[in-house]
Design a protein that fits this description.
Number of helices: 8
Shape: elongated
Largest sheet: 5 strands, mixed
Distance between the termini: 25 Å
Order of helices and strands: EHEHEHEHEHEHEHHE
Radius of gyration: 17 Å
Strand content: 15-25%
Strand order of the largest sheet: 2-1-3-4-8
Length: about 190
């Protein structure tokens, strides 16, 4: 339908994704995007405070999208990560250490399991559903492995938790191509 503008509320779990959302939206004249950065509960709080009647859809990723679905009836489109994104994070982690694990929400760990099955990689993959679980998982890995590199979900775990543990957290970024082909989730 020519001339129809779709109003999108973008909630990015980190600044780089907000920038990517804005850059991609500029390429589509029929898109009006208001993008904010808010991870998990902060993202849900942005949605609770927004004038939702001004939007047709919300776009986010992973655990943040899951939290947003809990606080709105608007459709929430989740930006999916590819196996390639996870492979890139694994390769980044390998540059620092041979001992690393993947800790993340299902949007990270599901493609990680697929990749590890395909490539016959043997690594720890821990699926979490809250920041409380993240803290326990990273503590357990630190206690059992000494030092490790966490190829962590692009959530608060990317910086906050690993830096508290004095370890490197490798962010799994969503590339701009993913933003142009997000998959709706239920």
């Amino acid at each position: 339908m020519e001339g129809r503008v779709t109003h999108i509320l973008g909630i990015a779990p980190y600044d780089g994704m907000q920038t990517a959302m804005e850059r991609v939206a500029e390429e589509f004249p029929n898109i009006q995007l208001d993008a904010y950065t808010g991870d998990l509960e902060a993202g849900a709080a942005i949605v609770r405070s927004a004038q939702l009647e001004n939007y047709d859809v919300i776009i986010s990723r992973g655990g943040t999208a899951d939290r947003i679905r809990e606080v709105t009836d608007l459709p929430v489109v989740s930006i999916q990560l590819s196996v390639y994104d996870v492979l890139r994070a694994i390769k980044m982690a390998e540059n620092y250490s041979n001992l690393y694990a993947i800790v993340g929400f299902p949007s990270i760990t599901e493609p990680a399991h697929t990749l590890c099955d395909l490539l016959r990689l043997d690594m720890d993959i821990i699926t979490i559903h809250s920041m409380d679980e993240t803290n326990r998982a990273l503590d357990r890995l630190r206690d059992h492995a000494g030092t490790f590199q966490a190829a962590a979900d692009g959530k608060a775990t990317k910086i906050i938790i690993p830096s508290e543990l004095q370890n490197l957290g490798a962010l799994v970024p969503s590339i701009a191509e993913l933003l142009t082909d997000p998959k709706p989730t239920e």
